[in-house]
Every structure is written in C-alpha cells, then in structure tokens.
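Exercise (ungraded).
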Amino acid sequence: MSDRTLNLDDKLYQYVLDHSIREHPAQKALRDATRSHPYAGMQISPEQGQFMGLLIKLMGARRTIEVGVFTGYSALAVALALPDDGKLLACDISNEYTQIGQPFWEQAQVRHKIDLQLRPALETLDARLATGEAGQYDFAFIDADKTSYDGYYERCLQLLRRGGLIAIDNTLWSGKVATHDTSADTVALQALNIKLHQDDRVDLSLLPIGDGLTLARKR
Ligand SMILES: C[S@@+](CC[C@H](N)C(=O)[O-])C[C@H]1O[C@@H](n2cnc3c(N)ncnc32)[C@H](O)[C@@H]1O
C-alpha cells in the first residue's frame, strides 16, 4: 500500500505495458516508425494514449480537438476510440511531422475522422469560435508549444460543452515545475498550474501519468 504514486522502475513499467497495453497494429507500427525521429521523445506513451482512448469512450465523445499532432500517435489513439462518425480537429504547424503519421491513420481506417489543420493552433481555434462552434466539442488534448498553453486552454474551454474535458500534457515537465528553473516553458507551465488550481470554471485532477497529465472538466 502507498499513499503516493510510485515511481516505476524499468521492470515494473514493463509489467504495466505487458499487462495493459492493447494497441492496434497501426499504433505499434507508428511508434516503431517514430522511434528513430530526433524528436521521438515528444510522442505520448502507449499507456497515456490508451488512457485517453478510455476517457473518450467513457464520455461518449464525438467531437474532439488536438493541439499538437507531431507524427500522429495521440491523434490515432483518440480517433480509434471515437465512433465512426466522430471527428478530431487536429492542429499542428508541421507538414513534415504530420505526414509521417498519415499512412498509419489510413492503416487503422480512421483517416476520415481526422480534420488536420496546418497553421498556428491559436488561429485554427479562433476561426472555429468565430464560426459559432463554442460549446460544441466534448474533449480537447493540449500538447504543443508550452508558452501558448494558456491561450489553448482558454479557447478550448470556450469550444467545449459543459461536462467536456480538457487534457493538458506535460504539466509536471520532467519535475521542472517544482524547481526554480526560469526557462520560458517552465514558467508558463508553473503559471498555468497555479491558475488551474484556482480556476472554479473546471473540476480538476493533475495525474502523474507520463510527463504529468492535467484533466480539467468544464463546469
Ligand atoms: C509534443 S509534440 C505533440 C506530440 C503528439 N501529441 C504525439 O503524441 O505524438 C508538439 C507538436 O506541436 C506542434 N506545434 C508547435 N507549435 C505549434 C503551434 N503554434 N500551433 C500548432 N502546433 C504547434 C509541433 O509541430 C509538434 O508537432
């Protein structure tokens, strides 16, 4: 028994993977295809992808948002969990990164669910708000440039319906949020964590999964 989350050593982490991960073959293939990428560390872990898929199914989510696609693993995890007529508004600025994932979205037969928008995510989200889509989304995942997280959060909060969920990645930032690191990314995440803690527009949980995953449910 423990009153705090365990740090998993390699053996116990492998046990978690061996006893819980149920990846579609396209998910495993996409992880393999990303492994040699110089920024492979940006990809979420398989247990986080599966957890987010479970959240999507629990919520019965149909309209979803992702800010930060990279090679498309988290988008694939969400799209696989959506019903066939579900949609993911996938925001990124890199054609190079997102092109890597698209054959795997095809392989998993979820390409039709993913609306990939290649321009700064703040512009994409503002455009959706301008066309009257506030309150119409069920779920959003934020995983892009850290200094814009607060802007993504505010826009996603408007786009979500009541009871909708925002999942925010990297909120523990390899532990740097609990240090005096003054880099712009750390300072932005520290400020967001303080703001979220006091934000009575949402119900909140900061989970020590991956690099820290904050769940904020719109009240
Ligand atoms: C941490 S990676 C996303 C990882 C992805 N969720 C996964 O599981 O593989 C961050 C992504 O954010 C994108 N990005 C950076 N700045 C952005 C911006 N202003 N608008 C949209 N995407 C941006 C990058 O191109 C990169 O692909």
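Further reading is listed at the end of the chapter. For now, observe: The helical segments are 10-20, 25-34, 46-59, 73-81, 95-107, 121-130, 149-159, 184-198. Residues 10-35+45-218 form a domain with the Rossmann fold fold (CATH 3.40.50.150).
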